[in-house]
Automatic annotation (TrEMBL):
A Pfam short name: Methyltransf_11
Keyword Transferase: yes
Name the record gives this protein: Methyltransferase
GO MF term list: S-adenosylmethionine-dependent methyltransferase activity
Species for this entry: Methyloglobulus morosus KoM1
Domain Methyltransferase type: 63-160
GO biological process terms on file: methylation
InterPro entries noted in UniProt: Methyltransf_11, SAM-dependent_MTases_sf
Keyword tags: Methyltransferase, Transferase
Domain of life: Bacteria
Length: 285
């Protein structure tokens, strides 16, 4: 996608939305308009259903960090959580203004705070849960960011950081950035090594509950669906296995799980997606 670089994320997304040939990407990013149906689609998605299972059973106060245009804030509010959305961009298309508009149209009470994550404007132990979708890899100081998330989380609270870009080593970062379709519009993308995420979370005091790799959960693999997997295998191995065999492999549950496990062993793509779930211990040292 060869286009000019934009001076703001709002300009970049507005341009992308207007491109007929980019509508698949627009929908995958939930940029499609109107915003309320897009947010409803996210709330009903397999991704959100999987995230919901990671949330604690007891509903309470949640901080949605780097909330963007508010699709996760909307989903949390629809599920009954008391939501505070942290989003430094004031934009009415992709930022705090968009969240306020979405909340108003949906009839949800969402508190919107326009601040950065490295210095959170909240008291210690303010939230039961912190949710962050595609956020930690944007941190200007990952360790400080994690310390702030830990500080405002209640003892026994949970951090759920989904769809974080992972690289194997520093040499993969330029390759990842060169291939990232949205990086070419405005920039701002980044990725860390898996061990960097984990060391920053542990240094903050978190106890790691689970680490989900790119094929361990639909959270990370979406929008790479079974149909897209079938297309991929058909293009790569169709001449050898045949279309009917590939369909039997991909579209049976056992075959699909086998394919995902096999992909997990060999997937070393720059920027592959991970999800990190971590708890703040009940007894804080």
């Amino acid at each position: 996608m060869n286009v000019k670089r934009f001076t703001s994320w709002e300009e970049a997304v507005a341009w992308l939305i207007a491109q007929p040939e980019q509508q698949e990407l627009v929908r995958a990013c939930y940029f499609d308009r109107p915003a309320l149906p897009a947010a409803q689609r996210y709330w009903q998605s397999d991704e959100w259903c999987a995230v919901r299972k990671l949330l604690p059973a007891n509903i309470g106060r949640v901080l949605d960090v780097g909330a963007g245009m508010g699709i996760a804030s909307y989903a949390l509010g629809k599920d009954g959580w008391q939501v505070t959305a942290l989003e430094p961009d004031p934009s009415n298309l992709v930022g705090a203004g968009a969240i306020r508009q979405l909340a108003s149209k949906a009839g949800l009470e969402i508190t919107v705070v326009e601040k950065w994550g490295e210095r959170l404007p909240f008291a210690d132990a303010s939230f039961d849960v912190i949710h962050a979708r595609q956020v930690l890899h944007h941190a200007r100081d990952l360790e400080q960011f994690c310390k702030e998330l830990y500080r405002v989380l209640k003892p026994g609270g949970r951090l759920i950081a989904t769809r974080e870009h992972v690289i194997s080593d520093a040499s993969q970062l330029p390759k990842f950035l060169a291939k990232h379709s949205l990086q070419n519009l405005y920039g701002g993308e980044n990725a860390f090594q898996r061990k960097e995420y984990l060391s920053s979370l542990k240094a903050a005091g978190f106890s790691i509950l689970s680490v989900l790799g790119p094929w361990d959960s639909i959270i990370n693999s979406t929008p790479f669906t079974r149909h897209k997997l079938a297309e991929f295998f058909l293009a790569r191995y169709g001449h050898w296995l045949g279309a009917s065999m590939i369909s039997r492999i991909i579209f049976t549950e056992l075959g699909f799980q086998f394919v995902r496990q096999a992909l997990a062993l060999v997937d070393r793509r720059p920027g592959r997606l991970y999800t990190f779930v971590a708890d703040k211990p009940e007894q804080v040292q």
